[in-house]
Amino acid sequence: MGIFSRKDSTPQATAAPAAPAGTGLAALTGEYTIDPAHTSIGFTARHAMVTNVKGSFTEFTGSLHLDGENPAKSTATLDVVMDSIDTGNADRDTHLKSADFFKTDEFPTMTFRSTGAEFLGGDDYRITGDLSILGVTRPITIDLEFNGAATDPFGNQRVGFEGKAELLRSEWGLTWNAALETGGVLISDKIKLNFDVSAIKNA
């Protein structure tokens, strides 16, 4: 999942580069399970117009289907437990789980389901899909950087991807805010997402 960024409303049609030959990507074709112990899903929000608050989700499951010969056929899924949100402040986490934000009692899971993928050149890829929060599903685009593949000391075949993205939380109904006396608002509408994914090839 690399860079989550909002899909350009006026995309320019361009020919996708051919997948690089001789890089061994074809050998990576297969089904993979995301390893939560070595994967991070984080976010950053602007606070009080002057600083950033960072957080993460600590419980999630996901899978990848990689097609090394035809990256366009690759897919990804992700299910995130919203109660696992962690910003390093218990009171803030409780507020984020409340009806003002994620309503975790009613909507316990955030999901992503890919709908398309493309190879951009070098180690860069792009994946598009549907992100569901609070029962609202909207398209999102993720730009990924492939970090490589290796066999770990336990014999697991691993692949790694790194990326980031931006979205407007209001588009998913996350509109709670507070005005500042100096102007502006307490929490930015724009949220930055970042991912560091390690996935293990299924036996």
Automatic annotation (TrEMBL):
InterPro entries linked to this entry: Lipid/polyisoprenoid-bd_YceI, TTHA0802/YceI-like_sf
Matching SUPFAM superfamilies: YceI-like
Location of the Lipid/polyisoprenoid-binding YceI-like domain: 31-200
Gene3D superfamilies noted in UniProt: Lipid/polyisoprenoid-binding, YceI-like
Entry superkingdom: Bacteria
Signal sequence region: none
Pfam entry (one): YceI
Entry-linked PANTHER family: PROTEIN YCEI
Similarity-based family: Belongs to the UPF0312 family.
Protein name: Polyisoprenoid-binding protein
Organism: Streptomyces griseoluteus
Lineage of the organism: Bacteria, Bacillati, Actinomycetota, Actinomycetes, Kitasatosporales
